[in-house]
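#dry-run=false #mode=assembly
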Amino acid sequence: MIASENRGRVLRRLFRRPLTVIGLFLILANIVMVLFAPVLSPYNPEEMHLKDRHSPPSMKYLLGTDFYGRDILSRIIHGSRISFTLGLSVVAGGLLFGTTLGLVAGYFGGRVDSLLMRVTDIFLAFPQMVFAMAIMSVRGQGFGNVVLALTLTGWTAFARLVRAEALSLRDLEFVQAVQSLGARTPRILFRHLLPNLMAPIIVQATMGMATPILTEAALTFLGIGIPPNVPSWGGMLSVDRDFMETAWWSVTFPGLAIACTVLGFNLFGDGLRDALDPKLRA
Amino acid sequence: MMYADDGAQPMAPLLEIENLRVTFDGEDGEVTAVNGVTLSVGQGETVALVGESGCGKSMTALSVLRLVPAPLGAIRGGSVRFAGEELLMKTVEQMQEIRGRDIAMIFQEPMTSLNPVFTCGDQIMEAITRHRVVSKREAREQAVEMLRLVGIPMPERRLYEYPHQLSGGMRQRVMIGMALCCAPKLLIADEPTTALDVTIQAQILDLLRTLKRKIGMAILLITHDLGIVAEVAERVVIMYAGEVVEEAPVRSLFKKPAHPYTRGLLGSVPKLDRKEEELKTIPGNVPSLKSMPSGCRFHPRCPNARSLCAKAAPALLEIGEGQRVACWLYGLPSDREGVETL
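#status=ok
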């Protein structure tokens, strides 16, 4: 296909921008942490050094320790396994489900649209936290259940965004032109409409990374998320939130980890969006 | 690719539209966009469907492909037969097979009729592989051939270009190439040159004429430009406010237009050899679909209107060879059959 010959050009465009490369670097750093957490972390993330509680960053503990004397660097590295993976899975789940639903609703319009959007409204009507709590209390603690709960509450943003965009796209003549050539509906939806929606979807997906990471923290704080001894960035924030003034390092570094991850996805997403836009290609 | 090499003579109708009705759900209830339209296109024939904006000509054309924009619009009655088969009874899947293979369509806006995120080559190749079992290499060769056929220089290079890199005329050529790559029997051209400037217009019309001869296809040309009609059409169907008001071979139509609306249309074409201060127009406006006049829909603007015109709608009546007109000037209810009673 001609598409495959363009792939090289897209990649070259992608890496031409320093910001995109930085974004990719941040994402890759996360992936490395996820894969090699035990090798990279200087301490066992669950080990409590009771003599060194809330000790500031030093040569011994590079990023300091938390309220229980656990090494923050090690917990951030291990926390990526929960937080990074969680953010990614929830966004991927919402993307898959919400985008499909939004495409179908926007393309067909009418009754299909009304039905699907009312279902979406029902999901939106519940406060996300309450809905997630309900699911967690039924299904119990655990990583898989958190992903499930947050995906079920998080897909609506994608559905509404994609639906609105598809609604305006389907009136463009090229959709009619493709129909007039005999294209089947799934092909129109996923090959012709979807690529035209990539820009808003990428923005939504990269912005949406942070929410699940923080919601997981809230669930864990309430004791219905992930077991509290398992390190996660959100969990670290909620444990040491009260000591922000006396032990700034205990919340600053986990916060920075979240920020860097989100930033990484945003920068990379921006670059990806521009690289995929044929109008910006020279 | 196989092309018939002779200019086919009009034979048994390839496309027969009968009593077609298309409605739309508006904010204040249902409106009828196409009201009982009947027309036919013979094999290899070029028929022009002429009318002002909003008279239902595009909806008539979209109905043939069953592409009336759902869910607001719907075909409510009538019949559309293509090569003897009723299209309105086909399943969606059957229609998808027919679209692009037997009947293809080109659109008014070349700027938006190509998908902006794919190269021209990808889009033509998709149209080819949709209806034909060919390898990718063959599809690409056919795409190059198609681009060459529609007069695009350096087709091998254009294959890799995106729609925004081409001019409007070039895009319309690519669109025509896509529509014709499966050698359809009928091409529906919905104002194919309206968005182009005059020199490009002439080129595209030339191209359509040449391709028509090569492929031996029929064309249903939708336009509001009578100059184009005179140039390419063999037969003309005039629509006004959702109805056919006159149908005639192109020569008769220009020589002796029968319907007052047709006369008005021809009269409002500016002519170089006549010294006129002012451009002639038809008084009044096209009626809104929501408030159609009673009787003949043209009567409020018609110079020949009588009291009868406001009461009853005239049916199409044959007044000459191949010329049919819906107007009370050509026979009163007593002389005609099948007329609504007053």
